[in-house]
Amino acid sequence: MTTYVGNIVAAATSIFEGMSITFSHFFRTPYTVQYPDRMPIRVQDTLPYRYRGLLEVDLEICTGCLACLRACPIDCIRIDTHKVKETKQTILDRFDIDLAKCMYCGLCSEPCPTGSIHHTREFEGADYSLESLVHRFVKEPTPTYKPKKTGEDDPVIAPILERGKRYVGEFATAPKAAPAKKVAPAKKTGPPDKAVAAPKAASVDKGTADAKAAPAARAAPAKSAAVPEKPETVTESSAEGEKE
Ligand code: SF4
Ligand code: SF4
Fold first, then answer.
1. Which residues line ligand 1 (CB under 6 A)?
2. Which residue of 90, 119, 139, 161 could cross-link 233, Cys pair, CB 3.0 to 4.6 Å?
């Protein structure tokens, strides 16, 4: 009988404890947010500057150099160009990025000389078909951009180029390498043990060589910040255009 009553009391206590926790949530500020329509500000605007969201291409400053296409490790980018014989002007016929494949690694935007291809902070790319995730930036054949030696004076293109260069300088350029530490020479503490000393010296040499080589290797992408005077535009389609 005592056990029976004890079980009833334990069950009632357990229910009361559970319900007290449940009721306490009626008076707490909710932690959840009702995305996307009841946010005080857009989530995109709260993301950090270097966030790698959906890719965008400013065709106004695309030189057609194909550096982005070559840099993409999984062939997301497709660019077709042809050259007009009379004017020697390169025309962009296609600039597609398959965002269904894209892994947002940023490798394509790093070598872009003008910052034409760049990440945005936009991330809502859901769609109903894979085909619609292929973003086609060229709506009609568009002449490629030719950098001017004297600087851009077109009031429409100048701010776009300014944004692109800022992007390349601040976002797409690799951070500066830390100065290499000097390796202190080993102290002589007695007769050298050849079997031990030889591998040690070799490892110090290799480390020093690697440290020297590192800044040179990392400095290479900085070249991309400079705008090339003449775009490299040899593609299959352009070659075919010349034959015709
Ligand atoms: S972000 Fe990476 S995967 Fe996507 S297009 Fe650029 S290089 Fe290719
Ligand atoms: S200018 Fe930039 S976006 Fe245009 S083809 Fe070259 S790397 Fe790609």
1. 71-72, 74, 76-77, 97, 102-108
2. 90
Is the CB of residue 65 below 6 angstroms from any atom belonging to ligand 2?
Answer: yes
Of ligand 2's listed atoms, the one at least distance from the Cα of 65 is 6
Q: Residue 102 and residue 125: Cα distance in Å, rounded?
A: 11
Residue nearest to atom 2 of ligand 1 (CA): 105
Nearest CA to ligand 1 atom 6: 108
**138 has pLDDT over 90:** yes
Over 80: is that where the pLDDT of 214 sits? no
Q: How far apart are CA 55 and CA 109, in angstroms?
A: 9
State the closest ligand 1 atom to the C-alpha of 77, by its place in the atom list counted from 1. 5
pLDDT band at 184 (very low <50, low <70, confident <90, very high): low
**Which atom in ligand 1 lies closest to the alpha carbon of residue 52?**
1
Give CA torsion, residues 61, 67, 73, 78, to 10 deg: 60
Question: Percent of the chain having pLDDT more than 90?
Answer: 51
Domains defined for the chain, CATH in brackets: 45-175+222-243 (3.30.70)
